[in-house]
């Protein structure tokens, strides 16, 4: 798929204020700092479209980006950052649950997992919640450039094995690197396929 145009549309905290839900959208979520915003920039080929930072907690709002005037990419704030108040965590949970349950044009939620780590309870719990809500999702194992390919594949296999304990069917999954631009064709091809369904 060719990205001819990628434009920031709006940021907000309320799902009812998001753009009218007539176009399909693809949202990115995962632990703070896992690389959600960087992946959006890599996919669109626009370096500074989504704001990134080496410090966790950069993205705080629901951010819509319109692609080719046909579909949206949505950058969401992350979870699992220890130095966040209970109040902020609850606010995040409320906003994300509202977004996931009310956004009917959400074609796929990409849940990003740090490919360097063993399965993290916070990710598995989040994935279970997404499953219970019936939200279509896929996994993206990020930052693959930070280690060897065989190490990445090994970690992915351990994660998928863990998922098999509670899931009969595994979701689609991808390996990515925003730095090495890995996973771009596979992810855009997947989005293209879902858009055509
Ligand atoms: P929050 O908005 O804070 O939840 O973080 P995020 O998930 O949007 O992460 P972000 O894209 O801001 O990236 C966090 C840090 O990881 C930045 O320093 C990025 O440069 C770095 N990073 C993101 N993706 C990759 C990657 O694929 N490879 C490497 N080496 N670094 C990455
Ligand atoms: Mg971000």
Automatic annotation (TrEMBL):
<keyword id="KW-0131">Cell cycle</keyword>
<dbReference type="InterPro" id="IPR006073">
    <property type="entry name" value="GTP-bd"/>
</dbReference>
<keyword id="KW-0342">GTP-binding</keyword>
<keyword id="KW-0132">Cell division</keyword>
<dbReference type="Pfam" id="PF01926">
    <property type="entry name" value="MMR_HSR1"/>
</dbReference>
<dbReference type="InterPro" id="IPR030393">
    <property type="entry name" value="G_ENGB_dom"/>
</dbReference>
<comment type="function">
    <text>Necessary for normal cell division and for the maintenance of normal septation.</text>
</comment>
<keyword id="KW-0479">Metal-binding</keyword>
<dbReference type="InterPro" id="IPR019987">
    <property type="entry name" value="GTP-bd_ribosome_bio_YsxC"/>
</dbReference>
<dbReference type="InterPro" id="IPR027417">
    <property type="entry name" value="P-loop_NTPase"/>
</dbReference>
<dbReference type="GO" id="GO:0000917">
    <property type="term" value="P:division septum assembly"/>
</dbReference>
<feature type="domain" description="EngB-type G">
    <location>
        <begin position="22"/>
        <end position="197"/>
    </location>
</feature>
<protein>
    <recommendedName>
        <fullName>Probable GTP-binding protein EngB</fullName>
    </recommendedName>
</protein>
<keyword id="KW-0460">Magnesium</keyword>
<dbReference type="GO" id="GO:0005525">
    <property type="term" value="F:GTP binding"/>
</dbReference>
<dbReference type="GO" id="GO:0046872">
    <property type="term" value="F:metal ion binding"/>
</dbReference>
<keyword id="KW-0547">Nucleotide-binding</keyword>
<comment type="similarity">
    <text>Belongs to the TRAFAC class TrmE-Era-EngA-EngB-Septin-like GTPase superfamily. EngB GTPase family.</text>
</comment>
<keyword id="KW-0717">Septation</keyword>
């Amino acid at each position: 798929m060719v990205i001819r145009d990628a434009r920031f549309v709006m940021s907000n905290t309320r799902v009812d204020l998001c753009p009218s839900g007539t176009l399909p959208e693809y949202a990115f979520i995962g632990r703070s700092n896992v690389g959600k915003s960087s992946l959006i920039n890599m996919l669109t080929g626009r370096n500074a479209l989504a704001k990134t930072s080496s410090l966790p907690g950069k993205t705080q709002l629901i951010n819509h980006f319109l692609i080719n005037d046909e579909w949206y990419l949505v950058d969401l704030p992350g979870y699992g950052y220890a130095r966040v108040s209970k109040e902020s965590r609850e606010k995040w949970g409320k906003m994300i649950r509202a977004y996931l349950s009310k956004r009917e044009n959400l074609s796929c939620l990409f849940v990003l997992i740090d490919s360097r780590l063993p399965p993290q309870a916070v990710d598995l719990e989040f994935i279970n919640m997404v499953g219970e809500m019936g939200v279509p999702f896929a996994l993206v194992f990020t930052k693959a450039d930070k280690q060897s390919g065989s190490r990445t594949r090994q970690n992915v296999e351990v994660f998928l094995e863990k998922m098999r304990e509670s899931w009969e069917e595994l979701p689609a999954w991808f390996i990515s690197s925003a730095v090495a631009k890995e996973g771009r064709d596979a992810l855009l091809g997947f989005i293209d396929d879902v858009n055509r369904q």
